Amino acid sequence: MLASLSGVDAVGAEARAAKLATRSIKKSTKLAALDLAISMVDLTTLEGADTPGRVASLCAKAMRPDPRDPSVPSAAAVCVYPDLVAHARSVLGRSSVAVAAVATAFPSGRASLNVKLLDVREAVAAGADEIDMVIDRGAFLSGRIGQVFDEVVAVKAACGDAHLKVILETGELVTYDNVRRASWIAMLGGADFIKTSTGKVSVSSTPPTALVMLEAVRDFAESFGRVVGVKVAGGIRTSKDAIRYLVLVNETVGSTWLSPTLFRFGASSLLNDLLMQRLKQQRGAYVRPDEFSGD
Amino acid sequence: MTERQLANSQLGSLQYDPAPESAAIATLRASYGLFIDGEFTDPSSHQQFASINPANETTNATVAQASDADVERAVGAARRAYKKVWSKTTGAERAKYLYRIARIIQERSRELAVVETLDNGKPIRESRDVDVPLAAAHFFYYAGWADKLDHAGFGANPQPVGVAGQIIPWNFPLLMAAWKLAPALAAGNTCVLKPAETTPLSALLLAEILQQAELPAGVVNIVTGDGSTGSALVEHPDVDKIAFTGSTEVGRLIQRSVGVSGKRLTLELGGKGANIVFDDAPIDEMIEGIIDGIFFNQGHVCCAGSRLLVQETIADEVLRRLVRRVEQLRVGDPMDKNTDVGAINSAAQLARIEELSAFGESEGATRYSSSCELPATGYWFAPTVFANVAQSHRIARDEIFGPVLSVLTFRTPEEAVAKANNTNYGLACGVWSEKGSRTLWTAQRLRAGVIWANTYNRFDPTSPFGGMRESGFGREGGRHGLEAYLNV
Fold first, then answer.
1. In sequence order, what are the residues at sequence separation of 6 or more whose Cβ sits closer than 8 angstroms to the Cβ of residue B37?
2. Where does residue B35 fall: left (phi above 0), alpha (psi -120 to 50 degrees), or beta otherwise?
3. Which residues of B touch A222 (CB under 8 A)?
4. Are the Cβ atoms of B14 and A256 closer than 8 angstroms?
5. Which of A105, A82, A107 is nearest to A196 (CA)?
């Protein structure tokens, strides 16, 4: 199955992504894209220094990104470490914002399968709606593809009703061929989402990587009739970047994926830039960055 | 549910608001004279003709119709400039002028891109990202050669040819002017350039740039007009070299006319490029490459990949993806930054494309045309793919020079090569495979001047470009491009 996957020509993929980056998004399209992007944000804090207080303020921000303007949509989810899931859950209450937890020995994935599964089960029990797991890149790179697949299957089972996002850590897989193969392994293993990166290595999501993953979900849906989402994460800080990703989605997989149920941004500082650009579109002038809360 | 979600996933459902480039950036005069001896002058006949914007059929400006007497004046000015100035200018000095021209092209790139799009109908994205930057790159590249001709591989102290008559086509007006002028000037020749009848404006803007660069008077002369101007230039006895890019038909006439006159001649003519797709090709990039190969510049590209030869094992899959991709192309206002495919350059060209496409249908090929809405005014043709094309069909043999792709299949590499070579042309081919040895095996057997591997329509001033057989002879670009302008 994997052997029959077509290769990716790196030069061509990068050229295609660069070409789509020249799309000029203006006026009402821009406003619609900004709102869509806001609704797709997984507002993330993944620091050793995270505290319940910080998570609470993040949750408030996710529910009402701009307290002065109720027309701003809420973010899709908050993304935290498993030990803070219960707290986030209690702050979010019944809001539409989901709780996502990074589990399976995030970010390195260097733990035994039992530890990983326990990590997942505890996060789900604490109220996580979504689990962001990491694949074992060591196993992938040494050719133990079956092991990567089996882990995804096991984690998916441990998730129960929670949605599973599988982080490929494309910066460590390096080649686009690897990204395509890993995408298929994750999808065959039962992933609801495939996600680019942890944000913890120097190379995170790039447009050509996202392009290759979008092509993979499109081809997978055509082959198996199951629609898998894509989450891009790490290093996406500006509205311009976010809109470029939306253009990639628009012209690679189309409208079904232009929704927070199938496309997400894992980011923290991006949200404020989206809010600022939104206000700029409405008022015709920029406001100070300090107009928006830090988190 | 998922089945429906898939079927309903509309590509491009996020409608982009128009993002038009401003036409006001172009500072066009109402009418242009002939650029002779460093000045814009009235043609002797005082005749002007209109240069039309093919996207809406409005007049951009009027330009002069050069008569035989005007060509005589232009060649005379070029000869004087050659004798008195340019042949005595050192290579290092010539390089300075070329560098200056390149830099001014860069400075005025936005203006040039707008003029090119208004006059030609190509999308602003292409004139902005391809035509103008490549034109500047050609001047930069040949500026570097001007003082190093001794080391270009043509022996010590190679001499210029003299006065070059250069006739360029309408598909890449500014870029073709750069391809012709840059090597000629670097090698020490003076030039009389004749732009195409339908797209003279960017060359006239270039004339202003030459003035701005203070290029000595008469070194470059630009005469606008129809075919009669071109033939006056070709037949002029004091022209030492003719360089022509255009149709094979006209190329034949020129070659006959040049005959035994002793003039040097290079021809860059038509083509019917084949994109050969093996079943191990990187499929997504290959689809993009095929699309780029035929729909770039509305297919008005002599080296366009207008034939697709696809291995039978993946033919259905490739066709399905191609049709989906064609449907997604954004056709419309060339000035919109989000347009992928612009207007057909002229009514005459549109008629030819329509005629040949009708032939394709009557010969039994299956037609897929984009359902895109075409503007009411201007010259437009929806991007089209013909499947089930046979080698004997006219759409597999004649150059259509429009956004029309003919898809044929093959079973073995030998058959692919045989089909690709079964044409009178020989300009460009593409090979798509992840297997290097197969790519090289194929490339060695293809009779074409340019072979691209896993890409198409990629141009660079360092790389020679040109054809064989009915696609012409001589090379432009690279070190090889100097040979046409040196007495070697």
1. B73, B77, B80, B81, B217, B218, B221
2. beta
3. 6
4. no
5. A107
Which chain B residue has the Cα nearest residue A176?
B282
Kindly list the catalytic residues of A: 132, 195, 231
Retrieve residue B156's tokens: 């010590």
Which residue of chain B has the CA closest to A26?
Answer: B17
B10 to chain A nearest CA, in Å? 5
Q: Alpha-carbon distance B51 to B201, whole Å?
A: 8
All residues of chain B having their beta carbon less than 8 Å from the beta carbon of residue A258 are 13-14
Inter-chain CB proximity A254 and B283 less than 8 Å = no
Per-position pLDDT tens, chain B of length 488: 455 565 567 777 788 999 999 999 998 999 999 999 999 999 999 999 999 999 999 999 999 999 999 999 999 999 999 999 999 999 999 999 999 999 999 999 999 999 999 999 999 999 999 999 999 999 999 999 999 999 999 999 999 999 999 999 999 999 999 999 999 999 999 999 999 999 999 999 999 999 999 999 999 999 999 999 999 999 999 999 999 999 999 999 999 999 889 999 999 999 999 999 999 999 999 999 999 999 999 999 999 999 999 999 999 999 999 999 999 999 999 999 999 999 999 999 999 999 999 999 999 999 999 999 999 999 999 999 999 999 999 999 999 999 999 999 999 999 999 999 999 999 999 999 999 999 999 999 999 999 999 999 999 999 999 999 999 999 999 999 999 999 98
The two beta strands, B39-41 and B307-311, are unpaired
Closest partner CB to B288 (pick from A12, A22, A222):
A12
Task: Identify the active-site residue in B111, B197, B268, B470.
Answer: B268
Q: For residue A222, give the chain B residue with the closest CA.
A: B6
CA distance A282 to A286: 10
